[in-house]
């Protein structure tokens, strides 16, 4: 019984953290234009540089890989501290200007609200969605209702699998 009682706080912490996890409408009240602003920065960058989607996705991966998605990949080096972005595995990362431009625009609309880590996550999401926008999936739709380029092939594959 003692072991079970010791587990309860851990389980409650997990339940609370899951229920307060990521939310697509997190900034709806505090910065309602966040998606529009980040999307505009991404679209603008993509119109000038075809490598932006891959760069942002890779940057997001490198930010999240070690200690979670904290935006630390965006920090600049100082005289006394070499930043994560200047380390050997990250030296070839680029497109930081996309995040900088989105952050600048968001700071003028809703100062101190949207984190750089969230901007990076949104920018990576938007760039991949825009790059592969051969299908359609508005924000409001459930993922399973989206029409992606491979949907007909996947449906056909599932149909064949269910018959065997």
From TrEMBL:
Pfam families: peroxidase. GO terms for biological process: hydrogen peroxide catabolic process; response to oxidative stress. Its cofactor is Ca(2+); heme b. The record marks 58 as: Transition state stabilizer. The keyword S-adenosyl-L-methionine does not apply. SUPFAM superfamilies: Heme-dependent peroxidases. Binds 2 calcium ions per subunit. Disulfide bonds join 31-110, 64-69. It catalyses: 2 a phenolic donor + H2O2 = 2 a phenolic radical donor + 2 H2O. Residues 1-21 form the signal peptide. Ca(2+) binds at residues 63, 68, 70, 72, 84. PROSITE patterns: PEROXIDASE_4 (PS50873). Keywords: Calcium, Disulfide bond, Heme, Hydrogen peroxide, Iron, Metal-binding, Oxidoreductase, Peroxidase, Signal. The active site is at 62 (proton acceptor). GO terms for molecular function: heme binding; lactoperoxidase activity; metal ion binding. Gene3D superfamilies: 1.10.520.10. Residues 21-132 form the Plant heme peroxidase family profile domain. PANTHER family: PEROXIDASE 25-RELATED (PTHR31235). Belongs to the peroxidase family. This is Peroxidase. It comes from Zostera marina (Eelgrass).
């Amino acid at each position: 019984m003692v072991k079970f009682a010791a587990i309860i706080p851990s389980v409650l912490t997990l339940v609370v953290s899951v229920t307060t996890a990521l939310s697509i409408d997190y900034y709806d009240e505090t910065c309602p234009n966040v998606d529009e602003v980040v999307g505009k920065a991404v679209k603008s960058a993509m119109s000038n540089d075809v490598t932006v989607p891959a760069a942002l996705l890779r940057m997001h991966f490198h930010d999240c890989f070690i200690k979670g998605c904290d935006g630390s990949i965006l920090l600049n080096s100082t005289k006394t501290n070499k930043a994560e972005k200047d380390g050997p595995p990250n030296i070839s990362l680029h497109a930081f200007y996309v995040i900088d431009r989105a952050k600048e625009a968001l700071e003028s609309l809703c100062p101190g609200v949207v984190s750089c880590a969230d901007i990076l996550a949104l920018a990576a999401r938007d760039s991949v969605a825009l790059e592969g926008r051969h299908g359609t999936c508005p924000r409001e739709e459930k993922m399973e209702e989206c029409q992606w380029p491979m949907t007909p092939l996947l449906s056909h594959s599932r149909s064949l699998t269910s018959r065997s």
